[in-house]
């Protein structure tokens, strides 16, 4: 629990809009096309590196236009080399729609 709280605090510094989902999951706002996050994938890589360097814990990051899509992309990120998956609004018909109901969060 202590490590979870420390990781949350580490994420809170660059990502002030966040919501804890469980002991090991967070949702955070990282608006695409924002001056703070011009490249969401690079921002996710930096966050992964920071968590690894500080805690020696690997993490997967799912990015999407809303929490539900982010949760779905996180499930895919767990099976993806590099551990990062990003679906934009345009990706939803090709990435989400073919999934079975059993794969839905």
UniProtKB/TrEMBL annotation:
Q: Which Pfam families match?
A: IMS
UniProt xrefs under InterPro entries: DNA/RNA_pol_sf, Rev_trsase/Diguanyl_cyclase, UmuC
Q: Which SUPFAM superfamilies match?
A: DNA/RNA polymerases
Domain named UmuC is located at 4-73
Protein family according to the UniProt entry: Belongs to the DNA polymerase type-Y family.
What protein name does the entry list?
Answer: UmuC domain-containing protein
Q: What organism is the protein native to?
A: Alicyclobacillus fastidiosus
What's the source species' lineage? Bacteria, Bacillati, Bacillota, Bacilli, Bacillales
